[in-house]
Design goal:
single chain; five-stranded mixed β-sheet; two-stranded antiparallel sheet; 45% helix; 12% strand; globular
């Protein structure tokens, strides 16, 4: 079959289910420049026709290809049978450690703002990273602004997205038309965006060829396709045990707070609130303890933006860096224990007053967890799923909640120092490679 490329975008909802519920799709044939619109919500005939149409192509370009690949699965197409360019990943790659693209004028909440590079982490106060720096989401709106100078109406995009996610049974003709228009707007920018990405790569490395750029793009796109299968399948867990655990979060925290009060009766950092029937943190007593017992706290202890003593986990860990064992005679160690526990288990409870997602937001009707994997989320290009929905990132004792079906098994693999090895191979540094082969890169690297 002759090589044919299609730019496309799907809209769907019910992301915690398999298959997802397809709403619409817009395609753009690169060779003919023909744009086609497909309304899929409650329309099985259109799905059959779209599937047949897509089979005419072997290359696809999209923004955040995992969404399109999950849509392929919903149509009965295997995404790994095709080549993908994921412009979301490409934008992440070209902005990674690239000050010219990462800072300066950016589209923030629909408005153009000039943002500056934050100070080194060790010089910041609590909360400064959010205030002084710009944490890119690498959205399509951010990408089209930075690379094409196009200012998207993000308020309208959010409105359309919220309408789609709400999954109404029926949509008015006006709503349907608005959703397809919104989808088409995204597709029309993709060809120019792909060209702009290629130009940025060639700015970074004038020797690189377009063929090489595309070759690596297809490899990254394959990772998107494979990840889409993982997201669509989800992973199993013991639903009843996890529900019981979730219901006991308040009691677990109570037991730890009560124990810390008994271990340190002179400090007694947690005060009982009769009205709310729970402990609250007596921050005044805790800060007084820091001033009296931590040498050099004036200069070394992390401060808030109001120059007050921070009580964040990061602040405590600078002086009490305990990871597994928390000595019961060391107050700072017990506070670290409490804060880590709180961080780990709070994601299991739904707080109606919070916009933060909790574990149950990623659970489908089939009682499988479908987390967002956040691929290429790390500066080293690792995936960075949130520990809220990815139990494998939780403390070891929580991972027991992951439970395969009878007759099945699950295995976890932890690669050792893989970025170090890749750096050695790509740089051709034989000494670095030998350090990796020694079994422990840290002493070898120091030597």
């Amino acid at each position: 079959m002759k090589s044919k490329t299609c730019y496309l975008d799907f809209e769907f909802n019910q992301v915690t289910e398999s298959p997802v519920n397809l709403v619409c799709c817009v395609t753009l044939d690169e060779s003919t420049n023909e744009e086609m619109r497909w309304w899929l919500h409650g329309n099985p005939k259109a799905k059959v026709a779209l599937k047949k149409y897509l089979e005419n192509f072997n290359y696809f370009v999209s923004y955040s290809a995992i969404a399109e690949c999950r849509s392929f699965l919903a149509l009965g197409l295997m995404p790994t049978d095709y080549k993908w360019v994921d412009l979301f990943l490409e934008f992440r790659c070209i902005t990674n450690h690239n000050d010219k693209l990462q800072w300066g004028e950016q589209l923030v909440d629909g408005k153009v703002k000039k943002v500056s590079k934050p100070r080194p982490k060790y010089e910041r106060v609590e909360g400064e990273e959010q205030e002084a720096g710009f944490k890119a989401t690498h959205s399509l709106a951010e990408a089209t602004f930075k690379l094409l100078g196009v200012i998207r109406d993000t308020e309208h995009k959010n409105k359309m997205r919220d309408l789609i996610i709400s999954n109404p049974g029926l949509l008015s003709p006006e709503e349907s038309e608005a959703i397809v228009d919104y989808c088409a707007e995204d597709v029309r920018d993709l060809p120019a965006l792909w060209d702009a990405v290629i130009k940025q790569y060639r700015k970074l490395d004038p020797e690189i060829t377009v063929h090489t750029i595309k070759k690596f793009a297809y490899t990254k796109g394959e990772y998107s396709a494979l990840t889409s299968i993982m997201e669509d399948r989800g992973y199993p867990f013991n639903y009843e045990k996890t529900k019981n655990f979730s219901n006991q979060v308040g009691n677990i925290l109570y037991e730890v707070q009560h124990e810390i009060n008994e271990l340190f009766p002179d400090i007694k950092p947690f005060r009982w609130n009769r009205k709310e029937q729970r402990f609250s943190w007596d921050q005044g007593r805790t800060k007084a303890w820091i001033k009296e017992n931590v040498t050099g706290w004036e200069k070394g202890w992390l401060k808030t933006d109001t120059k007050d003593i921070s009580l964040s986990l990061e602040a405590w860990q600078r002086y009490f860096d305990y990871k597994h064992d928390y000595p019961k005679d060391i107050f700072g160690a017990q506070i670290v224990r409490f804060l880590k526990l709180k961080q780990s288990i709070y994601g299991f409870t739904a707080n109606p007053d919070s916009k933060k997602r909790n574990f149950w937001d990623s659970v489908g009707k089939d009682k499988r967890v479908r987390p967002y994997f956040n691929i290429y989320g790390a500066g080293s290009s690792r995936s960075q799923p949130s520990a809220t929905s990815f139990l494998f990132l939780k403390p070891a004792w929580m991972r027991a909640l992951v439970e395969p079906s009878p007759g099945y098994a699950m295995a976890g693999i932890d690669y050792s120092s893989q970025e170090f090895l890749l750096s050695a191979i790509l740089s051709g540094d034989e000494t670095m490679y030998n350090a990796y082969c020694s079994g422990d890169v840290y002493p070898s690297f120091a030597i």
